[in-house]
TrEMBL record:
Full protein name: Arginine--tRNA ligase
Domain DALR anticodon binding: 450-562
Compartment(s): Cytoplasm
Gene3D superfamilies reported in the protein's UniProt record: Arginyl tRNA synthetase N-terminal domain, HUPs, Isoleucyl-tRNA Synthetase, Domain 1
Organism listed in the record: Filobacillus milosensis
Domain Arginyl tRNA synthetase N-terminal intervals: 9-85
Length: 562
């Protein structure tokens, strides 16, 4: 039952369709203080339409809305219509709904089974998996889950950076200074060394760059030696990346990276030519966009292709293959220009589906206020970071609950959950400061705090021998009301997360619900009163369900014990 919607309907009837329903819904707020009611409708905008004061309008509306058994009281306050819901009715209704729907509570049908392709993670092979790629991975994964909850079919695509001039450099470097055994033993580190070494040497010896260009050209032309080396570098890198994906529980539907489009680019270039969009510029081929954006480079003067060319081919391929209605690119904000150009070119090519394309940018991860760099010696190996998080989580879990079974698994869930939550609780465009200690605290705004609250709820249920029964739910505890209003808005939160491509909505919500629950837990002796036990446990069960589902939407597991 959507109580907010009932209020929307009532207002809509009274306003004689002067504002549409979705607008009314958007305007409804939660009053600042609980004493002021549960929903508030501001009348300031209406003042212009009705040429009357907000105070009068609010008074008039409040007067005309019929109090039903769901509204306890309706009150005009300072230009707002404040509604007090009937606590008992609504509490029981909300808990009933959560328990009967379980993890489907909050499911929306916005997507109508339409496909959304989500391009995320997309690290560059032969390089360490960076913090930026971690952000892309956790944000993209959460968005896939949130879109799925909204009725879309997500296709998760790992657009590996496995093509481009850097592979020419790597091949040259390996042929000159490489050692097979070393690469096999520690592929990413060794390939990075070779890459760095190439740049050092090329500073002395300019001809190396020419040679690298030649080798990339060989690669694009299918030269056997080049392809073999490339394939080997790629396989080794992918193996390393898989360890990380496995650790954090992320899977893809496709890992077709840039190389996959090698034989699909010529067609794109032809298309551009046919549509008269391609122009010569200093020997290179470009598409002029408009006055605000620089031209999009399609082919270099040596005939090799570029990142943008491959993205053009990829977008077209994805539309042909999946017929997406939406297509997201979860990539750092330093690539904003690239995506603007890409989308403009596709529009110029006349593809109507260009409207479904969205760049979902994000900020950086900082350490002591500086960008965490993967260059030179300062490599922060992600696997190492995750393992450290798990280690610290093990310590924390042991302190809290030394007799816990399957400690190892719980520690992994908590350590990884902490890293993911720390990222997702921040609005994605903000830069975030990296601190393992902060992430792993059991108190405060952390993943472990939410997980711990979930475990606490689960353990009360088992201690109280809870038997599910949603026949006679009847919640009367005053302290439960904050929890109820929080449970009630979960579907709205999901909708907002979807509209803003913003998982932080869900993360912040989980913190709020956890706080409300812990307050309840601190002030109500849940199991002591035999008569009230069942209704209280039903409430606890609803919290447990929503916390678990919320965490799942962020890609975080929820242990039952910790
Ligand atoms: N590999 C790229 C990088 O690390 C990100 C690729 C993003 N996806 C895309 N379709 N361009 O910068």
């Amino acid at each position: 039952m959507d109580y907010k919607n009932m209020f929307v309907e009532d207002l809509y009837d009274l306003l004689k369709s002067k504002i549409d329903k979705s607008m009314i819904r958007k305007m409804i707020e939660k009053p600042k203080y609980e004493e002021m009611g549960d929903l508030a409708f501001p009348c300031f905008e209406l003042a212009k339409i009705y040429r009357d004061s907000p105070l009068n309008i609010a008074a008039d509306l409040a007067n005309k809305i019929n109090t039903s058994n769901l509204y306890e009281k309706i009150e005009p306050v300072n230009g707002y219509v404040n509604v007090f819901l009937n606590k008992k009715e609504v509490s029981s209704g909300v808990v009933y709904e959560v328990i009967s729907k379980k993890e489907d509570y909050g499911n929306l049908n916005i997507g109508k089974d339409g496909v959304v392709t989500i391009d995320f993670s997309s690290p560059n092979i032969a390089k360490p998996f960076s913090m930026g790629h971690l952000r892309s991975t956790v944000i993209g994964n959460a968005l896939a889950l949130i879109y799925e909850k909204c009725g879309f079919k997500p296709i998760r695509i790992n657009h590996l950076g496995d093509w481009g001039t850097q592979f020419g450099k790597l091949i040259v470097s390996y042929r000159m200074w490489g050692d097979e055994q070393k690469v096999k033993k520690n592929p990413i580190k060794e390939l990075l060394n070779l890459y760095i070494h190439f740049h050092e040497e090329a500073e002395q010896n300019e001809s190396l760059n020419e040679e690298a260009r030649q080798w990339f050209k060989n690669l694009e032309n299918g030269n056997k030696e080049a392809l073999e080396l490339w394939k080997w570098f790629r396989d080794e890198s992918v193996k390393e990346f898989s360890k990380i994906y496995e650790l954090i529980g992320v899977q893809f539907d496709s890992s077709q990276g840039e190389a996959f489009y090698n034989d699909k680019m010529e067609k794109v270039v032809h298309l551009l030519e046919k549509k008269d969009l391609l122009q010569e510029s200093e020997g290179a081929k470009v598409v002029q966009i408009n006055n605000e954006l620089p031209p999009c480079l399609i082919k270099k003067n040596d005939g090799t292709t570029l990142y943008a060319t491959r993205d053009l081919a990829a977008a077209i391929y994805r539309q042909d293959t999946y017929q997406f209605v939406k297509s997201l690119y979860v990539v750092g904000n330093e690539q904003t220009l690239h995506f603007k150009q890409l989308f403009e070119v596709l529009e110029k090519m006349g593809y109507e589906w260009h409207e479904g394309l969205t760049h979902v940018p994000f900020g950086m991860i900082l350490k002591d206020g500086k960008k965490m760099s993967t260059r030179k010696g300062k490599v922060v190996l992600l696997e190492q970071v995750l393992n450290e998080a798990i280690e610290l989580a093990t310590k924390n879990v042991m302190e809290k609950n030394p007799s816990l079974e399957s400690k190892e698994n719980v520690a992994r869930q908590v350590g990884v959950g902490a890293v993911i939550f720390h990222d997702l609780k921040n609005y994605r465009l903000n830069d975030i400061e990296f601190s393992l200690e902060d992430m792993l605290r059991f108190e405060g705004e952390t993943g472990p705090y939410v997980q711990y609250t979930h475990a606490r709820a689960s353990s009360i249920l088992s201690k109280g021998n809870y038997q599910e029964n949603n026949e006679n739910i009847n919640i009367t505890d005053k302290e439960a009301w904050t929890i109820i209003t929080s449970l009630m808005v979960f579907p709205d939160v999901i909708k907002r997360a979807f509209h803003g491509n913003d998982p932080s909505q869900v993360a912040k919500y989980l913190l709020e619900l956890s706080k409300a629950f812990n307050k309840f837990y601190g002030s109500v002796r849940i199991l002591d009163d035999y008569e009230k036990k069942q209704e209280r446990l039903s409430l606890v069960h609803s919290v447990q369900i929503v916390l678990k589902e919320g965490l799942r939407l962020l890609g975080i597991e929820a242990p039952y014990k910790m």
